[in-house]
Each structure stands twice: as structure tokens, then as C-alpha cells.
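User: quick one, sequence for these C-alpha cells?
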């Protein structure tokens, strides 16, 4: 596997591999002990985000997310200073699809803050998705500003 290191020391290809292979233990290695994760539902963007504080809470969440029978595909990554943004497509066996726009704030090679913007069914850019509606699954995701395809 080719490594893609960001300016902040994050090995993005290893992160992508952990996400796409649904490996919560590998994912946890990317988080700082005091990391924060905010999850925003795109259909209710003005509602308070679901918040997780610390690696232990994030660990529980990742084990639930990656314990589900889904496929995960990471695309459209952008590296900008101490931030990494990307789009993650999550496909469920029942045909539901969830899109997660993620922004990571990275310091010293570790994720210190993550914001996920979760959209069910249709892609965040307005293109039609494969899902039939909200699957009711809690997913890890993050809000991402502009996206570009660098793959």
C-alpha cells in the first residue's frame, strides 16, 4: 500500500484502509486521548450535534459503527494545513446508503477533532443515492467544507 502522509504527520492511506476494512482498533490509533467527535444530521443541520468526548467514548462508537454489515468507501480527500476532509459512502446490505462528509483536525499526527455531516440516501452534492431513506443506524461522520477528488 502506498503511504500518503499529510503535512500534520497523518498517514491518510492507513486511515483509509482502517475505514474501508471496518477496523475499529486501527482507527483508534489515529485519535488523541482527548479527541472530540461531533456528528451532525444533514436533515437537521441547526440541531445540536451528537458529541463524543475522549478516545474511550469514540472507541465505543467505532465498535458499533464498524460492527454493522456495511461497506465503506473513502473518496474526495483534501489536505489543507492541519485539516483533512473526505467523503465516505456507507452501503448497507438492505440497500440503504449513508454519505458521511468528514473533516479532521490533526495535530502531531493524531485526530484531535472530527466533525461528521451525515446524509441518508442522496449524495450531499445533490446526486441521487441508492438508499430508500434513513436506516436508523448511528454513523460516524463529519462536516466537510469544499471537496475535491484527489484520487
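Assistant:
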Amino acid at each position: 500500500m502506498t503511504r500518503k502522509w499529510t503535512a500534520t504527520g497523518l498517514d491518510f492511506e492507513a486511515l483509509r484502509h482502517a475505514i474501508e476494512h471496518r477496523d475499529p482498533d486501527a482507527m483508534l490509533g489515529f485519535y488523541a486521548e482527548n479527541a472530540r467527535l461531533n456528528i451532525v444530521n444533514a436533515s437537521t443541520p441547526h440541531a445540536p450535534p451528537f458529541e463524543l468526548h475522549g478516545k474511550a467514548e469514540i472507541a465505543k462508537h467505532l465498535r458499533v459503527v464498524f460492527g454493522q454489515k456495511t461497506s465503506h468507501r473513502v473518496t474526495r480527500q483534501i489536505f489543507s494545513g492541519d485539516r483533512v476532509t473526505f467523503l465516505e459512502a456507507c452501503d448497507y446490505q438492505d440497500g440503504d446508503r449513508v454519505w458521511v462528509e468528514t473533516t479532521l483536525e490533526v495535530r502531531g499526527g493524531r485526530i484531535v477533532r472530527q466533525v461528521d455531516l451525515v446524509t441518508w440516501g442522496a449524495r450531499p452534492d445533490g446526486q441521487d443515492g441508492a438508499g430508500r431513506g434513513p436506516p436508523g443506524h448511528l454513523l460516524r461522520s463529519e462536516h466537510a467544507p469544499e471537496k475535491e477528488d484527489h484520487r
